[in-house]
Amino acid sequence: MIRFENVHKSFGKHEVLKGIDAEVDKGQVVCLIGASGSGKSTLLRCVNGLEDYQSGRISIEGETIDAHAASIHAIRTRVAMVFQRFNLFPHMTALQNVMEGPVHVLGEDRREVRARAEDHLRRVGLAEKMDFYPSALSGGQQQRVAIARALAMRPDAILLDEPTSALDPEMVGEVLAVLRDLAQEHMTMLIVTHEIQFAREVADGVIFLDQGRIAEHGSAEEVLTRPQNPRTQEFLRRVTHPI
Amino acid sequence: MSPLSERIQEYLPLLVTGLWQTVAVTLISLVLASALGLMWALMRSSGSRWMSLPARYIVEFLRGIPILVVLFYIYFVMPEVGLDLTAFQAGVMGLALTYSCYIGETFRGGIEAVDRGQIEAAKSIGMKHGKMMRRIVLPQAFRIALPPYGNNMVMLLKDSSQVSVISVAELTMQGKMLASSTFDNMTVFTMVAALYLCLTIPLNFLMRRVELKMGAAT
Ligand SMILES: Nc1ncnc2c1ncn2[C@@H]1O[C@H](COP(=O)(O)OP(=O)(O)O)[C@@H](O)[C@H]1O
Ligand SMILES: [Mg+2]
């Protein structure tokens, strides 16, 4: 579904992605792991055109993604994104946040969207908080609203950039539980995460990114339990046994 | 001289007419300056050089000219190129142009202070630039810009006295004429100052209230 073919990306002279080849199939959950600065966020952001890339090709169901083309707006409605820092719209309630895209971008019927948005919010456990503004919600609740906002677009795939990294430890679980549910329903997801245990449970594939290159790519079992690359081994040692 | 209370009663009607003119000049200029200022700000943050550069030059150009000169120019020079304006119209135009720069910068500051993550979130649900501005960026930018906008408003109100130089019959002008015909400078200008305060003090108070309310809502 999402396909990377020899993708190169630089910020000025600094090459951040050095030839990425990978694929995320429909219904798959792929976790992207790697040290800070290895290019995980950049790779993710290239998929919905928040960053451009210089060469190679990223495509979704065969359609090339080009951040500068007019088609990017339509592509973004099909590839939702969940941010590390939630980025909810602060002047809208949780429900309005979730309804915003379907109503004002896709032009869908407000009443239908409302019913659907309420369902999504109930699903992520926020039935009681629909009319709250983001500032009145905890980090974990805000991130769940953000996930509901992504789901409301009925996307083909969801990109998640460290969805639990900005959360207090006691809230990580509630967000991962929602993602686990989505994985079970075969929502296509590309997730940047440091939650190795979570990746082991839900990921169909794991990509280890090292300084802009894919150092290891395989099933969760292969990459996380029996990593071949010494850099993967070293990275896993550090994140699973922090000193 | 007649007793103070009598003199005050005598001067008041004339000064109050001036006061209404001041209010009219201020309100009309404010509306125009806000609309123009919003346009400058939107052009500057459009992401297109063809929009942002002209706006930037216009604003820098206008800001470099004293308001009195702008007023003289509009009132005395424009008729020579066929644009005849009443003193009131010229005054409003001069104030609106000058203040569109300050207000434009205020709005631009607000727009730029909106968190980058908001723009990315808006884009990520497929919003195009215009809708993103309208629905996501501007509502937040206005909130941020509100306190400086309030300042602009009070400054505009006070600077509306400048249009007296092209003989708009607003409060300051009426005071000047009254003082020169009665020689009662102290009473007249004290009354003029008091009447300005009757506008600025409530306005400041109102702005603080609105700010508090807005602050509580986020
Ligand atoms: N907008 C940018 N401008 C310049 N350099 C950037 C920008 N964004 C990221 N980088 C650089 O690209 C590299 C990869 O960043 P990033 O994709 O954020 O890594 P990760 O998400 O894996 O921590 C880093 O060296 C970072 O400094
Ligand atoms: Mg990152």
UniProtKB/TrEMBL annotation, chain A:
> Could you tell me which Pfam families the record lists for this protein?
ABC_tran (PF00005)
* Record localization: Cell membrane
What's the superkingdom here?
A: Bacteria
Its record classes its membrane topology as:
Peripheral membrane protein
Among its keywords, does the record have Cell membrane? yes
Q: Which SMART domains does its entry note?
A: AAA
Domain ABC transporter: start-end pairs: 2-236
Output the Gene Ontology terms for molecular function.
ATP binding
Matching PROSITE patterns:
ABC_TRANSPORTER_1, ABC_TRANSPORTER_2
Gene3D superfamilies to which the protein is assigned, alphabetical: P-loop containing nucleotide triphosphate hydrolases
Please state the protein's primary subcellular location.
membrane
Mind listing the UniProt keywords for this protein, alphabetically? ATP-binding, Cell membrane, Membrane, Nucleotide-binding, Transport
Q: Into which family does the record put it? A: Belongs to the ABC transporter superfamily.
Question: Mind telling me what this protein is named?
Answer: Amino acid ABC transporter ATP-binding protein
Native organism: Salipiger mangrovisoli
Q: What is the lineage of its organism?
A: Bacteria, Pseudomonadati, Pseudomonadota, Alphaproteobacteria, Rhodobacterales
Automatic annotation (TrEMBL), chain B:
Where, per UniProt, does this protein localize?
Cell inner membrane; Cell membrane
Per the record, the domain of life is Bacteria
Q: Where is the ABC transmembrane type-1 domain?
A: 19-207
Against Pfam families, the record matches this protein to: BPD_transp_1
**Could you tell me the keywords of this UniProt record?**
Amino-acid transport, Cell membrane, Membrane, Transmembrane, Transmembrane helix, Transport
PROSITE patterns associated with the record:
ABC_TM1
Give the matching CDD domains: TM_PBP2
Q: Report how it sits in the membrane.
A: Multi-pass membrane protein
- What name does the UniProt record give this protein? Amino acid ABC transporter permease
